[in-house]
Amino acid sequence: MKKEQKDMSRRDFLRRLGLGAGSAMAMMAMEPLNVLAQRRDGNENDNKNGNDNRMTYRVQHGSGEQISLLGFGMMRLPNNQDEVNQLVDYAIEHGVNYYDTAPVYMGGQSEVLMGNALSRHPRNKYFVATKMSNQNQRSWSFDDSKAMYERSMERLKVDYIDYYLLHAIGGGMDSLKGRFLDNGLLDFLLKEREAGRIKHLGFSYHGDVRDFDWLLDRQEEYHWDFCQIQMNFLDWRHASMRGGRRSDADAEYLYDKCRKSGVQCVIMEPLRGGAFGRMAQELSDQLKAIHPDDSAARWAFRWVGSYPNVLTILSGMNRMDHLEENIKTFSPIDPCTEAENQLLAKIADQMSGFPTVPCTTCEYCMPCPYGVNIPANFAYYNEAVNSHVLPLPDKSAADYAERKQQFAEGFKKALADEKTWAHKCQDCEECLSKCPQQIRIPNQLARIVETLRK
After folding, report:
1. Distance between CA 169 and CA 150 in Å, rounded?
2. Cα-flanking dihedrals φ and ψ of residue 129, to 5°?
């Protein structure tokens, strides 16, 4: 990268990524390693089945590997091997080659299903990503964590892992040291990378930004190959509101620190846990006015895909129609124009007006020992905010009673079983340490109970 580009202010640099009519040339100048749509139509391996593969690829800087910009997130899969095989076969046929899982997904079953499906294909057709998910283990001992690493290889049916992550960094320095440093585990993983059993080593960030900064500030020591962050057009400036507490760890900060550190980004939650598909009608109408046939998901993917330091964008695709639609979006990706970026920024500002709960329905908090369906409670609450049922107006307002009744009836319909309602929360705080978003879950559930009592 040229010196004058390095010296740009962070805001100025990002403004220049408006990606208007000259976006292709601008991005190629800033990132020469084929960051835009790369058509491999002429590659006989990609076309031996007669498929015209137009998937967008990004180049991994250290290895030169071409990684599909659409990555297959496998946190939730059909618990049926034949269905998973069909999804994987279609994805590989259409150029998707990055597959992400973790030992904690589906209680380990995700790794098994993914390993069985992928092992039916040539090893050079796919890249495996999995994680050291020792955050909820009773013991952070080296032996227990090493066993998890070895078990992942067995389940995935591989003798090396392409992309390996320290999972869910952000629980504070005590957690970081206990899980990876004091027990010698990170030293072991670095040696595994040196030996070639791990091709690329990185980490996923979920919470305390001090952990994120600490690891990237030691890039010369650890040489991180990639970092997985949450990034979407709402979190770009507004992710700092987490459980009612303001922090500086919005996606703009995370992305730019990675870029400055020379670390490429793997993106999770590009759709904000499906929140964009549930945005208020007047907001989605603004998008439809420009591209009537485009879904909110397509808009969100195009926005994330416009950033050149993004290596791949993970999407959980457990249905064939979702997979087909996403592949169309990325084959090739159509970067957002400057005007479209400005519109999405405006919509993000409007969406963040009345606070929603920043829950992505990852279900890490479950099960609740008292039976509360935490993600479902938050999902309905957020839906009520986005549809302007909430906030309830003053009791003297003409529509107060109507909106109060609408919220209560909608809540009962969304959570038919009263045993799963927010008021069953006993404030035991068992969920707090499990939440990647650092949501103060009992407090947020109390907000729902208070609204219902109104």
Report:
1. 21
2. -125, 125
Q: Which of 234, 224, 221 is nearest to 258 (CA)?
A: 224
The share of the chain scoring above pLDDT 70, in percent, equals 86
Peptide bond preceding 332 in cis form (omega within 30 of 0)? yes
Euclidean distance between CA atoms 311 and 290, whole angstroms: 28
pLDDT in tens, 229-263: 999 999 998 764 443 334 447 898 899 999 999 99
Q: How far apart are CA 250 and CA 12, in angstroms?
A: 17
8 Å CB contact between 336 and 303 = yes
Q: Which helix (H) or strand (E) holds 328?
A: helix 320-329
**Cα 375 to the center of its chain, rounded Å:** 17
CA atoms within 13 A on the CB side of 341: 21
Comparing 154-163, 255-264, 278-287, 370-379, which segment has the lowest mean pLDDT? 278-287
C-alpha 280/C-alpha 389 separation (Å) is 11
Chain centroid to Cα 436, Å, comes to 11
Q: In 3D, which of 106, 102, 104 has the Cα closest to residue 81?
A: 106
How far is CA 221 from its chain centroid? 27
Position 134, amino acid: N
- In angstroms, the CA 71 to CA 81 distance is 20
